[in-house]
Input
Amino acid sequence: MPPGDLQTDRPHSARIYDYLLGGKDNFEADRRVAEEILKHTPALPISMRANRRFMAKVVGFLADRGIRQFLDVGTGLPTSPNLHEVVQRMVPEATVVYVDNDPLVLSHARALLTPVGTGAVSYLDADLRQPESILRDDAVVKGFDLTRPVALTIIAVLQHVIDDDQARAIIGQLMAPLPAGSALALSAVTVENDPAGAGTVRTYNQNGVPVIARTREGVEALFSGFDLVEPGVVPVHHWKPVAADKGVDDAAVYMYGGVALK
Output
């Protein structure tokens, strides 16, 4: 794909997400698929907002535990609060490296590269499916001190890696060089809360956007080899809930999430 080619004639997961959250960075192909999705799961925007809160909760939790380096793979379009905004407001010296291979995200990277603290914030144009290219990039090699813990966050991305063995291999490769005390935080799509969600998964796949829904056990398996933090793998609004999570209908949240330590 040529650099900067946004492929506006094809639906894209990040732009569909943007539309469902009321954003403006989307095109007709994205809106068409999004409207079809809403026929199956009209509450999906509730789930997306709960997942965004999950991101903020986990990075805040990890910053409280003393982690000062964050590798966010599959960043997506900037949506406030961004990860570095949450972390650097708590610990201004924190370092954040964002990773995505979407030209639309790249075009908005400037919004991601405005630190709110004193720590560095950088953006790496790389593919989750090629973890070696991430690990050998200067943003990681020189930007991080790999003798100190790093938090790897893979939020609402692994549903696009439909092979479980490949997903676990990606996680294993990315975690391998990180020292003891590092953390893995991820969320992944499920339809166990609402069988109608299978229609949304089917709509994505029929429109050329690969998606898989996983069971709780399937998501727990992604953490294999690491020590899950309480409460384990749960719907994202049940992970250390905040006020905005209270009263959210379980049937409206299509994401499991969890955090584990190395």
Notes: The chain has a mean pLDDT of 93. The chain has one domain: 13-261. The radius of gyration is 17 Å.
